[in-house]
Design goal:
The complex is a heterodimer. By secondary structure, chain A is mainly alpha-helical. Chain A has 14 helices and no strands. The chains are: A mainly alpha, B alpha+beta.
């Protein structure tokens, strides 16, 4: 490259590669112009690295002067990452018990008795509804995250993922501590693997999908946003009690009689917990408001 | 009102005319001030001036001297010229009757 010595020792080659790697964080046009400037001025690789790093730092810091990425980080990624982590882990453990029951004791005789047939369909419907609820929550949260933190989405996405997978780490849901479930959770698949697969498939992937849609400059069409709102409201109402119970019994339950566990149990029915289902609907509320705002702006422009 | 660095950047761009682009502006500012001009300060200020409508920028030609990379060309707009003239006028008025040449350094008692 012009501006660099013809015979380059390995250290210089490596440091220019590092400059190129850091420059990848810039927009393509800016990267092109800045690398060209540095080549023309013939600066050393150390100065080039210092210069490019300074520009990258300024570019990355700039979006944080706006309030939106902060709302995305503090109002969405951290609290909803934690709630979804607890709830998905708790639901995974709860469904593990029924899954184990049916997989290990499967017989077509289940369909012969009306009672067991009804229970089978109830359990299946409950699993499907819970899955759909998690997918809808995750997608709408992902959409709001993407829309509010477009230029720093890599950071909010990383933090959301970290909280989602790390939030319930090391905790023991009540279902695992129940001695009646000892045989189920003695198996690694039900104790470890399934509680990772479910949040990945039902929360993480839909959230990434929502983020991809959210970072686009256009909001959802209003009718689609209304459909999402209706679906999320119905599913949230359906899952409200289960959501509250998951927060109480789904996280860090070392001893059923411990003061912490009792305090959390007494928290049941309190108003902050009652507001939790409402809180789960704020991302879809944002989705509707942004769609309505876009529609109003389009009408104003046409008018 | 412009900031000091914004004024320096506008002056350098106006002086360079059709040859105003990142590296040339940077060299011009360094020559005029005797201070190092960082790429970060230069490009973020270019963005700010463009947002304010004081300059226009576009991607120009690539040269072998630049490793085949394009330049970010800069042109001062009419609004930019007015703002720079207003800033210069304010500095001249503020400096009236003051001679900084040969001013004695304030000594510590």
């Amino acid at each position: 490259m012009a501006g660099e010595p013809a015979a380059k020792p390995g250290v210089i080659v490596m440091s220019w590669r590092l400059v190129d790697q850091v420059a990848r964080l810039l927009e393509p046009d800016e990267r092109e112009a800045v690398r060209g400037d540095l080549a023309e001025l013939g600066v050393s690789s150390a100065w080039a690295l210092w210069d490019i790093s300074g520009l990258v730092a300024r570019r990355q810091a700039r979006p944080w002067t706006d309030w939106r990425p902060w709302i995305a980080l503090v109002g969405l990624a951290l609290p909803f990452g934690m709630i979804l982590s607890i709830v998905s882990s708790s639901w995974a453990h709860r469904h593990s018990v029924y899954l184990w029951l049916y997989v290990n004791n499967w017989t077509w005789a289940y369909f012969e008795s009306p009672g067991s047939r009804r229970e089978f369909f109830t359990v299946t419907a409950s699993f499907l509804t819970d899955s759909l609820t998690l997918i809808c929550w995750a997608w709408t949260i992902g959409f709001a995250l993407g829309s509010l933190s477009r230029r720093v989405i890599w950071m909010t996405r990383a933090l959301f993922s970290l909280v989602l997978f790390g939030g319930a780490l090391g905790s023991t849901p009540a279902a695992v501590l129940n001695p009646a479930h000892a045989e189920v959770f003695s198996l690694t698949f039900y104790r470890v693997v399934l509680p990772v697969i479910l949040p990945t498939v039902l929360v993480w992937l839909p959230a990434l999908w929502g983020m991809r849609r959210g970072i686009r400059p256009t909001a959802l069409p209003l009718h689609q946003a209304m459909l999402w709102a209706a679906a999320v409201a119905t599913l949230t109402l359906w899952a409200a009690r289960s959501l509250e119970m998951s927060v109480i019994a789904g996280w860090w339950f070392p001893l059923a009689g411990s003061p912490a566990a009792i305090a959390r149990w007494e928290w049941r029915g309190s108003w902050p917990l009652r507001l939790l289902p409402l809180a789960m609907m704020w991302p879809v509320g944002y989705l509707v408001v942004s769609a309505g705002w876009q529609r109003w702006q389009n009408r104003t422009l046409i008018g | 009102m412009l900031g000091e660095f914004e004024y320096l950047l506008l002056s350098a761009s106006a002086r360079l005319g059709a040859e105003a682009y990142g590296a040339a502006i940077r060299q011009d500012i360094e020559r005029a001030t005797g201070r190092r001009c960082s790429v970060g300060a230069l490009y973020t200020t270019l963005d700010r001036l463009e947002e304010k409508g004081l300059i226009e920028t576009w991607m120009g030609e690539a040269t072998p001297q630049r490793g085949g990379r394009s330049k970010r060309m800069v042109r001062v707009t009419a609004k930019g010229t007015r703002e720079a003239a207003a800033f210069y006028g304010a500095v001249v008025r503020a400096s009236a009757g003051v001679s900084w040449q040969g001013s004695p350094r304030r000594s510590r008692a």
